[in-house]
Amino acid sequence: EGLASPSSIRAGVDMLFIVLCGVLVFFMQCGFIMLSVGAVRRKNAKNIILYILLDATFGAVAWFFFGWAFAYGPNPNASSKFIGAGWFVTYNLPKEEYVNWFFQYTFAATATTIISGSIIERTKVIAYIIYAMLVTGFVYPVVAHWVWSCDGWLSACLDSPLLEIGLVDLAGCGVVHMVGGIGGAVGAAIVGPRIGRYDASGRALAMPGHSAPFMALGVMILWFGWYGFNTGSLLGIVGQETMVPHVAIVTTLGAAGGTLGCLSYSLLVEKHWNVVNALNGALAGLVSITAACASVELWAGLVIGYIGGWIFSGCSWLLTYMKIDDPLEAAAMHGGCGMWGLWAVGWFASPSLMGNDRACGVFYGGCGGWLLGVQTIGIVVIAAWVIVLMAVIFGALHLMGILRVAPDEEKAGMDHSYHGGDAYPKDQQVADGEPFTTT
Amino acid sequence: EGLASPSSIRAGVDMLFIVLCGVLVFFMQCGFIMLSVGAVRRKNAKNIILYILLDATFGAVAWFFFGWAFAYGPNPNASSKFIGAGWFVTYNLPKEEYVNWFFQYTFAATATTIISGSIIERTKVIAYIIYAMLVTGFVYPVVAHWVWSCDGWLSACLDSPLLEIGLVDLAGCGVVHMVGGIGGAVGAAIVGPRIGRYDASGRALAMPGHSAPFMALGVMILWFGWYGFNTGSLLGIVGQETMVPHVAIVTTLGAAGGTLGCLSYSLLVEKHWNVVNALNGALAGLVSITAACASVELWAGLVIGYIGGWIFSGCSWLLTYMKIDDPLEAAAMHGGCGMWGLWAVGWFASPSLMGNDRACGVFYGGCGGWLLGVQTIGIVVIAAWVIVLMAVIFGALHLMGILRVAPDEEKAGMDHSYHGGDAYPKDQQVADGEPFTTT
Amino acid sequence: EGLASPSSIRAGVDMLFIVLCGVLVFFMQCGFIMLSVGAVRRKNAKNIILYILLDATFGAVAWFFFGWAFAYGPNPNASSKFIGAGWFVTYNLPKEEYVNWFFQYTFAATATTIISGSIIERTKVIAYIIYAMLVTGFVYPVVAHWVWSCDGWLSACLDSPLLEIGLVDLAGCGVVHMVGGIGGAVGAAIVGPRIGRYDASGRALAMPGHSAPFMALGVMILWFGWYGFNTGSLLGIVGQETMVPHVAIVTTLGAAGGTLGCLSYSLLVEKHWNVVNALNGALAGLVSITAACASVELWAGLVIGYIGGWIFSGCSWLLTYMKIDDPLEAAAMHGGCGMWGLWAVGWFASPSLMGNDRACGVFYGGCGGWLLGVQTIGIVVIAAWVIVLMAVIFGALHLMGILRVAPDEEKAGMDHSYHGGDAYPKDQQVADGEPFTTT
Q: Is residue B145 situated within a structural domain?
């Protein structure tokens, strides 16, 4: 095995931890595919598979050419607090930064994928590719630069951070989930509801997905990957090794709380045990706890998650009422709970975990309210950035006439119209020794 | 990267190993969902998804409030060999214990989930939630305390362990699988067979699950997670790094042996290549090797697994004959092979791996038979504990009339009766450009 | 946590890394199952599940008895450059080698599983078991010995390696993918096309698989596992920690490039967004980059993957034209892109990553062309070895009359003919409160 210095071994351990967590986050793409496939109608199953695959691939290309450069590249100009500007095409990228490139790529791809759920079943492939590259290549990287690079104006590691605290967003309630969820809301509003989603009197009709088991599979894969998402955001394990299970436990309790929150809502409002809502609840809890998981005590995970379940349910009702048709409810989930999660830090952050006299949650006295202030500023600014940019992007695609498919294509299904046929070919629908035939 | 002491780096490595294994064990919940969905009839698919999701969530709540406290909390009283009594609600829990809390939670949830398979397709949601909390919060923790806390009367790390050896149950043939499997057997016996499982003459009728691919997916995810289950139970990697691949190899050979055992049974008895049985065989082998995987030579994995395949098949036949209707065959799998796995230690334990002159398997001379004695005592006592408590729990639920759904609800399917509709909505069953309609 | 020497900690870290990567590679079996299930017709779904499960189990047995011994066992004889000859049945195997046994087992099983895709839907179980044991036990181990053991004549770590370089095949374009893919091509040619694949005029008819979502699931699991496949092949992380994300990024870009390559082909030739082809493209890119991922700059991943997408598409066309019917297109994917990936090293290898003045890619001047020469020799010799041996194996099975099922069995479907019934029982096809009945 040979000799190795402690610092070299330490570098290996932290590297293993971060790369592994990045791989888990990448696997969330698989979770999103299965969740989305299950949540759409059968005639659009291949379509959503392609869209998420394109996120992962065009996202990698966009990240390679300029996304990473805008997020983390060195910028010698006055704009450095706003945007990075170096290491394009990984040119001159130091090897020490490779791990961050990979880890952050998986987060960027996640943000983009979230949007897909809101606009699926009626959006053109070409529009999808264009906005996916713009989100992974520019919209997301700028927010990541603000919050997670040490140059960004919202960053906690800036020499002189905002209100001497900087935004607390460990794994990206704002950077990832708000970007994806609010981007999805804007997209769903501009692309318009699916045909048949609202009846003549404006009442919403249920459009259940075609496979609850695929949805469950997707949710469980996402939950699994979320352990990498949240713990990996500690960016190292040596020297802070007890924070890793801390984050893992809060994440677990957040998911549990979210499930209970959504189940409570279903039982009170819908009067039955709604399985799909329970699954969504687990995700709502996970989103809600993503910013705070290293800054709050264990019990707070359960509380923040539970409230997140109700916030998801409320946002879902509100968006449906506003005729924003979001097949995956991504806007309510990632937008609504993302905002809640960022704000929850200002309420629940424990002084013993913050290490900054000026920063603690309102429930601990608030330490002057600065933390809640920073978190509120972060929510407002990120939301504004995403709304404006995504409105421009989706608006331009709409004006160019390349955003939405034709009504007959939509009715026939994207798979029939664009992808050469059904995800489950008709002559393969029934078989028991003899193939089924329609003639 | 900065400086770090070797002991700090070591703590980081072991932490990474255990948290990661815990995450893999958590992912087994996804495996159980997919296996169970595939193994039940289409009309109950959403029901089993909800039940396993509730395990993970209510289980986390129960574990948070008192399960962990009963299993691993410090107990200053005379009852300390029987039960823990501290750190309720994680109050005063030292940060060093966080990793154990998380790792052990994933095991507790596994034990509870196992039971779901035995009583599915006819059990009420409310009964499910009650027993899930009691199992994760009390039945399981007490057994975990006996065997895995260093205070427990069966523990090998007690100052003066039972027969100077203590029970050998590395990853929980007794603690996890017997608790789940025997609990399931008791539950299935009390809740009674599904309508239509036995004909008028008492003959069992096949009730195949609705999707073999989902079953295969579940089994492969479980096998994947089992590497975390077994290797993680070493509770550290530094200083015992060659034991990790040892355990991984024995686990692999155990699964292979179990598959071969069940395939042999199918070919001899059923005269065809039964795929579902082969999949069950892999799991039977994995369960069988869970106690012994660090105590036996590599070849023994193959042998113990192969015998486990036959034991599963035999138990499965016996339970069917006894009219205990277990849709997932969880009782035969986890109960039968769990007992076998615990006992197998007494037969196959290699002196070179035990490090205790008094402890070795019968095939190596037996070292006086003490080890086989301890393992036998463990089987008997754990079985008795589980049978009595689960009979009380399920019996009480039965007497209260909240255990089993009404016959018409059962015939209609749980999804229709309780969950607002089918897992695969009917108008989504066939699609090829045009949605299928029943009118 | 107590004391531990740096060398002991280092051993723990590298062990964790390699075992974990092995577990990820094992999980690729799950990916292959789901991809294959989706790609075959409904009537053969259980059959392919069984076949891949048998790979994992009979493969483990064959590897245990002699595969490992032929690949990595010490051989005191003159044949040592050609084959290993020690440690049969793991007899006398040093504990330090356990990790390699496990890691390499997962690779051996992968090679064998690849073949299954080419011959599925018409091959007998017994033939499958025989060739699976021969491939995992002999055909694959010999190639692994040549390239990856330090005794092998193609190995780069031989005292005097071929052309003073030795074959560069980090994770097995040649050792794993060519063995599997070319083996599959030979098998598909000898077993002959499925009934109905070609019409009376010899024109190929499409035989789409029954579930695109299962294919997507399989591909994403494979991509996930591929990070273990490629990074784990570095065989350690301490001291080369920045190579791990290097490999992960090149792998990501390879997959992205492959997807783009196949999408380009589909748009140009088929004139629609072919989702299945895009999924195959991701895998084609991953195969293509498997040999070179530690020897090329990041951008080269994108280029090699993109070309790989076209090579897959071309090989697929060619094999169909040659009437070699390969349901999973495993021959084009793993055979074609495996050869391309091995050759690509000779074109793209970066001098700064090779550490050998004689070895660099043609695009960097070629350093005398020795590297391209070694890679070309490797391709030719491995292809010849696999073609000859697999022709003998499949030819013998054919002559013995145990290779292919009877035409009526094939038409009825393997599940009906051999496995006791359909993967989705007919009376479970439709349910909405009331089970569907065919009478």
A: yes
